[in-house]
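Re-running the complex after MR caught last week's input typo. The corrected sequence lines follow. Everything else is unchanged.
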Amino acid sequence: MSYALSLSQLLTLVQETLDAHFYGQAFWVKCEITDVKKYDQKNWCFCKLLEKKANQVVAETPGVFWQNGYQHIRRFEKATGQKFENGIEISCLVLVKFHPVYGMKLEVQEIDLSFSLGQMELARQETIRQLLLQYPNQIRQVDDVFITPNKQMPLPRIIQRIALITANHSDGQRDFIEELNKNIHGYAFKITGFLTTIQGTQAAAGIVKQFKVIQEKKHLFDVVALVRGGGSQTDLKPFDDFELAKTVALFPLPILTGIGHDRNTSVADLMARQYKVPTKVAASIVDHNHQTDRNLLLLREKMEDAVGAILFEKRQQIDKWQEKIQHLLPNRIALFKQKLEWMRLQTMHLPTRQMIQAKKEVEHLNIQLQTATTRYLKAKRAKWELSNRMVEQLAPEATLKRGFAILSQNKKIITNLGHIDTEKMLTAQLSDGTLNSKIIQIIKNDG
Amino acid sequence: MTDKLNFDTAYEAIEKIVQEIESETIPLDKLAEKVKEAKKLLAFCDEKLRNIEAELNETAS
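Corrected-run output:
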């Protein structure tokens, strides 16, 4: 009879053998995860790690994330925007552990983020490649920007009727509606919800279905808002889905996305107008309406200015005319009036004026007369005085006294030799007596 | 005109009137009438922006 080991002895031996063999060794393993059970409070996660080949499972083992490994799940979700859930492929650093009761498990120490990001990016790039390939006339890429029919659709001047695709009771829904309703300008909105799951494998199909519902009554809406809250720890994968991205790119109403991931941009974002988070979508709608509102105000101001300018110009014209009229017609009247007034005054004051004039003239003449008389008298007097003096000077008595004598013959005064009768007596009268004398000789002056 | 009036047509009508006034193609005796019309349209747009009920009633009718 052979010696039988107890099960625990055997399994402890397995444990010791494995421990000895794998002591201090960790391995990077590429695998898919499934049966994910997260214990958020304890920071534990149990799952299955498996490998498929041609859809056949060729390897499978339980995996576990203890506290240390669990931090890497959080990091993974934050970095990739992808939920740590069934079906994703990861590359992780594992320790091989065996326990007699719980069996073999791979203890995950770390997740290779660059591998996961690379995987996602590959899937994303594949979607983009297919979009460009299948819709070459509609979807084009210029550098990093995608030109799609949806993006090129102009927004209406005001956005009021909004079809909102989101998850019911989600943060995104609440934030979006709140942001719109709290707008300080008092703009009114009508929001119609098209609710669907926006996480997990069914999300993309659910969203596409809602787009189809909206398309059937598109005349009732101005835009579609596709929003999702919850930050970056949620799954971005559905928004890289080809069908969804295609629907968005070709949708006949402008789509505004706020998919709530601040690091990555989903393919759906690239096909529409992207605003990152729900509140930003709402704020952009309010801003858009405000811009229109401002333009209306500007138009009003422009109109008032233009009307003001026209009225000012016309008023100036009228003022000019008025001035002209005042200076033309009334001026003539005023002139005429002035003339009349002058004439009236003339008529009224004519006798008086004439009298005054006559009086003045008389006075003037009077003065002239007086002056003339005085002057005349003065002149007369002067002449008289002169004559008087001459008479005095010419009186014979005075002459005789100065030594002269008056000669006379036959009582006629002799002034020249021609009148002398040499035969007769010549009387010479002096101042004190008379000489009777005979002419002896006549001597004429020379010349 | 009021039947077919929506925000965009009202906005465009305002733009047209303002342009006409600015280019002085409106005769002076029509100016007051045009300004009155523009003001009516502006009030309409203002009402549209701030009151969705009007829009709803319009859709329903």
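None of the earlier attempt is carried over here. The longest helix of chain B spans residues 28-50. The helical segments of chain B are 7-22, 28-50, 52-60.
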